[in-house]
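Note on ligand handling. Small-molecule inputs were canonicalized before submission; formal charges were left as drawn, and no protonation-state enumeration was performed. Where a ligand contained multiple stereocentres, the stereochemistry in the source SMILES was retained. For pyridoxal-5'-phosphate, this procedure yielded the string shown in the input block below.
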Amino acid sequence: MTIIPYGKQSIDQSDLDAVAQVLRSDFITTGPKIAEFEKAVADYTGAGYAVAVSSGTAALHIACLAAGIGERDEVITTPITFAASANCVLYCGGKPVFADIDPATYNIDPKEIARNITARTKAILPVDFAGQPCDMDEIRRIARQNGLLVIEDAAHALGAEYHGKKVGCLADMTTFSFHPVKSITTGEGGMVTTDSPKLCEKLRLFRAHGITRDPSQMEKDEGGWYYEQLALGYNYRITDFQCALGISQMKRLDRFLARRREIAKRYDEAFSRMKGIVIPAQAGGRLSSRHLYCIQVTGIPRKAAFDQLRSAGIGVNVHYIPVYRHPYYRNLGYRNVRCKNAENLYEKILSLPIYPELTEEQQGKVIEAVGGLRPPSGG
Ligand SMILES: Cc1ncc(COP(=O)(O)O)c(C=O)c1O
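Structure output:
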């Protein structure tokens, strides 16, 4: 039986041609496509600057480094996310603090952010879950009031909008991922956008070993070969052929988003009439990129629903296990953390297939299978 996956990339001939052209050129790693891809994303999102890197995780890491997160600094984030959103704080020696979610949108609740601020808090790291932007006005207001930076993890949200503005220009720094299931893909890849030239300079340093060749940043200049290492950076460079794929994909981003939104609309219409299924609320002024389509199964145990749908050839998934529940985090001292709304959501949530190439017929099969969910025998 072929499984309908929950997410999948769309690659066409123009993508293949773009990559092949770079592979035949002189540049395999850092070449002209890096800046071209950065410009495409900056222009699209309305951000002043963009820094392309090797993954969404690398984007989060250099954003935390540029924010100056260090030993014992606290960063407030959501438990309903991929572990990378919190791991990036640990990489810098900081402490992720988990604030509970809004039970309607599944995004971090600004009231919970405010409640968790301490003298050690340095930044807020909201995640636009499933592609729906967080309450950025309120989060920015809390940040301003408390002298904090906002790093928006928009791994799910390239193309999403908040009160008419594209995600990417709403926070001090916004990070994207180009993993294959995301809005666009470069295989592995990521980007940080910012309006701050200072932060951009730091991001570029941390991306490439902390090394600069820019004479205006160097202590001295000994000649054409000369460069200086100014900080402890990493090799988080992305390749030119990945960026060629990214540029090619950006040309179809709006088409991808339109199809995702069409799929979500059909799911919304079907599931809002079904008993035992709760669909995620979309808050006012938000236009989701519809990276994930998550339902809550309230009529039967989630495990039974997961198993039945998988047996029917539907590649459902669970996003996410609250991060603090992982053994690594429990052993770090998060054993007693409990975010009630995140826990309740985790008990019921299921991600259904959504990606641009999902056909009407495949979607019909998903809807029918969800409509056919039954209590487990003996249940
Ligand atoms: C919310 C979130 N943040 C960060 C990442 C990390 O991105 P990447 O896989 O590109 O490193 C992901 C990836 O799935 C994600 O879903």
